[in-house]
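Action item from last week, closing it out:
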Amino acid sequence: MDPRVGGRYWTVGELATLISGLVLAISAFTDWYAGSESGGAFTLSVIGWHTGALGKLVFFAGLAVLALFALREAGIELPATVPESLVVIALGSLATIFVLVRLISIPDRFLPASGRGIGIWISLLAALAVIVAGLVRASEEL
């Protein structure tokens, strides 16, 4: 197997950062809340993007993780005083907090959608995976 362009292979931490950041960004467009009217005539599904500022911040946290990955691949690195793994862990922690707030508190304007959809659980797992990816990258930097 030949190394990729640039002459080196991706490490486990880099690959985990790429995948978890991509899943986190995409998960903002999955259904976070679902429910049906009392008569069952229609089913309501609300994507994360439409849940307010927190849903959008989850998307931008995932996008920031992907931007860090792209910048590193382009040869642009953060200053030595700011380890990239620490930034990835911080972004994952913020995204986890944002998702947990939306998981615990459903906004009143979505009340027919009283249940949680699969997308919010995917977002939570992706945010936690970003934290794990940052920790793996920190161990690789040693």
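Closing note: DSSP finds four helices and three strands in the chain.
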